[in-house]
Amino acid sequence: MVQNIDFTPPADPWVLFREWYALAGKNEPIDPNAMSLATVGGDGMPSLRVVLMKDFDEKGLVFFTNRESRKGEQLAKHPKAGICLHWKSLHRQIRAEGLITQTSDAESDAYHATRPRGSQIGAWASHQSQPLDDRTTLERRAAELEKQYEGKPVPRPPYWGGYRLTPLMLEFWQERGFRLHDRVVYRRQDANGPWAIERLNP
After folding, report:
1. Are 39 and 81 in contact (CB under 8 A)?
2. Residue 133 contacts by C-beta under 8 Å, 6 or more apart in sequence?
3. What b/e readout covers 74-94, taking b as 16+ CB neighbours within 10 angstroms?
4. Which among 18, 67, 141, 179 is annotated as catalytic?
5. How many CB atoms sit inside 10 A of residue 104's CB?
6. What is the arithmetic mean of pLDDT over 7-33?
7. Among this protein's residues, is 179 annotated catalytic?
8. Under 8 Å CB-to-CB from 191, ≥6 apart: which residues?
9. Among 88, 91, 127, 133, which residue has the least CB neighbours within 10 Å?
10. Within a 10 A sphere around the Cβ of 5, how many other Cβ atoms?
11. Does the global pTM surpass 0.85?
């Protein structure tokens, strides 16, 4: 059931972001950090997939991937992206559009070290977005890597790391009855500029 919850937008959008994300963590049953990531190719064709947000702060939202993947190649050529976090259980979503930068090697190493060992192996085994003749090939590569690193730490692949989306726009959407939804948008001209706030018609 939709709840009509009034809220006054704070001057700082990250205050609202933290509040909504904390609530999602308590109420969204599966992957509250799942977000749709939109990039664009050289032909102008948009591309969309779901990734996991692994960190966020006032500098932006962080996710990790194979940088030689399709999205990695697109982000290298066009370092801008859009994301959407949608929490069906809360009838809320947050959209962001902004600039993409790579995280430092230290940040990527630190996150890689926290991943399950199978995921670390998988980052080496998968030539992400490249053609695969059959699944047996992928599983064989994973098994060979398991043997190669048996009893040893699995290093981070040099082509695998993080990205940070620094928003120039953040939109908070809250469902309300009869499709009279709330839409509050924060915009700024550059990554260090002040935020301007406005409401939009649903």
Report:
1. yes
2. none
3. bbeeeeebbbbbbbeebbbbb
4. 179
5. 12
6. 95
7. yes
8. 98, 99, 166, 168
9. 133
10. 11
11. yes
